[in-house]
Amino acid sequence: MIYCPNCGTANRDGSSFCNQCGQRLGGGSKAICPFCGAENPIENIFCDACGAKLAPLVTRGAEEKEKPGLKGLSLPTKPTEEEEPAPLGEEAGLPQEPTGAAGEEEEIPDWLARLRASLGETAEPEGEASEEMPEEVPDWLRDLGAPPVEEPEEPVAPAPEEFAAEAAGGAEEMPEELPDWLRDLGAPPVEEPEEPVVPAPEEFAAAAAGGAEEMPEEVPDWLRDLGAPPVEEPEEPVAPAPEEAPPEAEAEEAAPREVPAEAEAPATGVPALLGGEPPAPAEEPLAAWLQEEGPVILELSEEETAEEEAGPAPASAPQVPAWLETLASGAAVLPEELGPVLGAPGKPTPEEVGLERAAIPSWLEVLRPGRKREEGEEAPAEEPAETEGVLEGVRGALRLVPAIDPGPDQFVRAVSAAATVTPAHAETLTQVLARPTAASVRPRAVRIPRRERGLPWLAFLLLLAAVLIPVLAPGLVPGGGQVPVAKPAEDFAAQIQNLAPGARVLFSFDYDPSVSTELDWPVREVLDNLKSRGTVLLVMSTTPTGPGLAARMGLGNTATLLGYLPGQEMGLQRLATSFSGAFLVDYQGKQVDETALGVQSLGDVALIITAASSQDAVRWWVEQVGSQTHTPICAIVSGAIEPSVRPYYSSGQLAGLVSGWVGGLAYRRAASPDTPMSAQDMAAMEAQSLGHLAVVVLIVLGNLAYWGKRLFGGRS
Amino acid sequence: MKVKFGRSLAVAITIGTGLLVLANFFVRNEYLRRVQQTLLDWAMILAAVALLLGALNVIATHLRKIRGRQPGWVYSLFLLAALGTVVLLGFSDPRGVASPAVSWVFLYVHVPLQATIFALTAFFIASAAYRAFRVRSVDSFIMLVAGVIVLLGQVPLGQAIWDRIAAAKDWILTYPSTAGARGIILGVALGTILTGLRVLLGIDRPHVK
Amino acid sequence: MSDLVGIWISALLTVMVLSYLLGDNPLYRLAEHLFVGTAVGYAVLVAYYSLLRPRLLLPLIQAPLENWTLIVPLLLAVLLLARLNHSWRGAGLVPLSFLLGVGVALAIGGALFGSILPQVEGTFVSVNPADGGWGVALSHLVLVIGTVSTLAYFYFTGQGDTGLGRVRGGFLKAWRGLGKWFIMLTFGALFAGTVMARLSLLIGRLQFLITEIPKTLR
Questions:
Q1: At what angle do helices A516-532 and B111-119 cross, to 10 degrees?
Q2: A137, B119, C131, C211: which could join C126 in a potential S-S bond, CB 3.0 to 4.6 Å?
C-alpha cells in the first residue's frame, strides 16, 4: 500500500494519484511533495526542495467528522443579477448550516478583515500607504490602497482574500487595462486588525467550515462555503497533526494555524473572479471542491517551524503576490523589483516583530499563475493567458496535473490539495467558469415497479381467456358467423374460376411449419377448389420443408409432388429460364417425366400459386418469374406480410391475394358461397375476434396508464 | 502475392458470372440463355451443398459443446440424437424424406414444435402491445389508429362495433398502406441495384474482406 | 396406432413449448433442441436426396463422360465444404464468389424489371374524378403522394445554405415528414397483420389441444 503524503489515505500499490485527494503519489518508498513535486524519502517531514510539510495537517471539530465525503468540484459561478446565488452546499448535497447573524451588517467578513489585519498591522492606512508606495508599484496597485511593500527576504504574497477585500471597495479606481475580475477587486481601505497574524489556509479553511454562519450575505456561494470567521487560538500556530488519515471532507477542515481575533468586514470583499457579488451569509460547509481536495498543507520553512514551536508564530511580511505582479505588468515581475507592499519604511518587517509569514489561502493559491523564482533557477515556461471567460488575461490560473505545479516556491505558504487538482477537476472548473451552474441531474435508475412486473402475466391471461372462451363455448361473440369481405380474395377466387379443366397449375409451398397452423386451412381450401375444377396440380417448394407440408395435404394422385427447388431466387430464375431440367426427381425420389407433365416452360402453366410466409418469397416469384412470363401469379400469404405484398397486388403483378386464415374464409365465401361455416371455423373466428379486441384493449390500457402517470402522477 | 491473386481471381469470378447472368435480362440470345441455365444449375447444386455445410456446422458446434462439457451440453446430446435419428431413418429408405418414418417424425415432432414455438409470440405481442405501444408523438398516434382500425376491421366483432370499419380497413390497406409499402419496395430495389452494381463493378468486394 | 402415438407426442411437445410462458426451463430447452435436431436432419436428407444425388453424384457416376461439365460444380462443392476447416477457409472463396456474382446479377435484374418498373407503372393511376368519381380520384392521389413522399423520406435530404437551398430543404423536409406518416401507417397495418397471424397460430394450437386430444380418448 502507498500512503498519500497529502491526506494519508492508503492507496493500492502502483497508484499514481491518491484516491481521496488526487495527490500525486510516488513510489512505495518515496513521498512526493505536493508543492514542488520533488521526491523525498518517505520518512521526511518536510520537503528537501521547498521545505513544505509533507505530512498532512488535519484538525477538525467533532461535528465535522460526520460530514460526508464529497465528490467533484463545486465551483463558484457568477450569479446573474436576478438570481440569488444558490448555496454551493445545496448543489453538492451538503447539509446546510444555519445562517448566522453575526457580521451580516458588515461589508467584509471577519475572516477577511482578520487576514487583512495581519497585513495592516505593519501597514499604513490606505491613504498613507498610497503615498508611501514605492514608485515601482504599478498604479493599479497603488490605487488599491495597498500599503507599500518592503523588500522581503522571503517575499510572501499577502492573502489574496485580503487583497480581494481591499479591492472590493476600490473597483472604480482600477485602471482599464486590468482584467475585469481584477478591476472588480477594488477594495475598501483596510483597517488595522487587532491580530496581525494571517491565518494559514488550513486555519482559514477550518474557520470557514466551522464558522460559515458568520459570513455576511454578500459573500458568494463558494466563498461562503469557505468563509468562516477566524478560529481562535493564535497561540497555537501549528495545527495539530492529523489524528487519522483524513477523508475528503476533512481536508478543508484543518484548524487554522492562527486566526486574527477580530477584524472588520471588508466593504465588499469579493472580486469578480471569485464570484463578483457582495458577500452573503455563509451557511454552508466547505465547497465541494475544496473539501474534496484533502487537507491543506502548510509550507513552512524550517525556521518558521522553529518559531512556531517556540512561541506565537510570527507573521510573515506581506508582499505583492507574484500572480498579481505578473498580471499587472504582463510579464513576470519579481516581487523584489516592486519592493515591499506592506510595511512602511521605518517600521519593522513582520518577521522582525515575530509575525508569521502570510499564507495564501488554499482556494486562491490554486489560481497563482506564477511564482517567485529562486536564484539561478530557470524561468518556468510562461503559461498562456486565458482568452475568454472570467479568467481572461489570467495566466496559469488553471493548471492540470502534471501541469498544475505550484512550483518549488518557498513562498507558497499553504497550498490546498486543490492545487493538485486532477485533470478531471480542472476540466470541471473550466466548464463551471464557462457557463452558469446548472442543477445537477442525477441519473435515474431504471427500475421496473413491482406492479409492472406482473403486467406481462395479465396480458397473457387476458389473451388466453379471449382465445379460450370462444373455443370452449362458441356462439358468445357477436357477429361470429359474419365473414369479412376481401376483394383480393375475391379476385383470387375469380382466377380459379377462370381455369379450364385440365389446366396446369403450379402450386408452390413456400412456407415453413411455423405458420402451418395459419396457412394450412386456406391452402387446403384452394387445393380443394382446384381439385374440384379438374386442374393438373404441379406441387413444388422453394423451402426444404415445403414438400413435407404438401404431402400432408392428402393430394394423392391428383397432384405431382415435384419436390424442393433449391437456391431461392436462383432456382426460380432457373425455372423461368426453362422448366425442363428444373426438377430431375420428384418428392418420392422418382425420375420426373417431363413429357407426362406436359410443361416445357412456364408459359404452359395456366396459373402459378405461391403460399408464402415471407415477403421475400413473394418478391422472388414476382421478380424472377413474373417478369419473365405472362402467367398470372396468385399468392396465399400470412396475415403478417399482407401489407408488404399489397403493392404487388395493387400493381397487378399478383392476380389475387388470400391473407391468412381470415382471408381463407373470405376466399371460401367468394368461391363457394353456399358452403356454411363449420362450428370449428366459427369458434376460431370468434376467438380471433376476441383476441383482436383484447389486444386493442391492452394498447388502450397501456396508453391510459402511461398518460395518466405522466399527467397526474408526476414524472413517470 | 498468393493472397492477392486469390482475391483478384475471386473478384473476377464474381464480375464474370454476374455479367453473364445479368445480360440475360437485357439480351434475348439462345446461347446466352444456355450459359445462364448452366450457371444456375451449378448455383443450385452449390446451394444444396451450402445447406449441407450449415448442417455440418451445427453438428460440429454441438459436438464441441459436448466434448468440452460446456453448459447445456446435455441438450446438445438430445439435438445430435434427434438429428442422427432422422438422418438414419432417411438413409435407410431409398425414398428419403418421403419415407413413412421420416414423414412421421416430420408430421408429429417437427411441425408441432415449430408451430408452437411461433404461437408463443402471440403472448409476447400482447405484452408488447401494453408495455411498448405508447403514443408519444403524431407518428405513433397514426400508427396506433391504423393498427386499431385494421385489427378490428379484420374480424366480425369490429363490424359489430362500427359497421364501416371493414371498409375503413380496406381503404387503409389499399391506398395509404400500399403507398408506404410501395415506397419501401422501391427504396429497397433502388438500393439493391446500387449495391449490386458496386459489386459487379468491383468497387465493393464483400467476399474478400 | 402410430397416428395416436403421434398425436400424443405432438400434444406433449406443444405443452413443453408452451411451458416457456412460465419461464425458461429444461422442458422448453429440450423441446427447442429437438426441433433444431429434426430440422437439420431433415435438411440433410432433402439436400442429399433431392439435389446432390440426382444432380451431381448419379450423373457423374452413371455417365461421367456425358456429364464431364459437372466436374466444375463438384470441385466448387468440395471447395465450399473445405470451409469447415479453418486452414482451408480461403479455398471457399471461389464458390462463394461464384454464388455472389450470380445472386447479385439476379437481384439487379429482378429489382429493375420485377419491382421498380412495375411498381412505378402501378403508381401511374388516374386522379381524374371523371374516371371513377371523387372518392377514387382522391384515393389515387393519396397513393401517389404517399409513394413519392415515402421515397423522399428514404432518399432525400438536403438543406442548402443559399436561399434556394433553404427553400428546397424546407420543401423536402415537408415531404419527408409526410412520408414518415405514411410509413408509420404502414407499420400500424403490419402490426395488425402480425397480431392476426400470431393469434391464428395460437388459436390453431389451442384448438388442437382442446379438440384433437379428446378425440383420441374416445
A1: 120
A2: C131
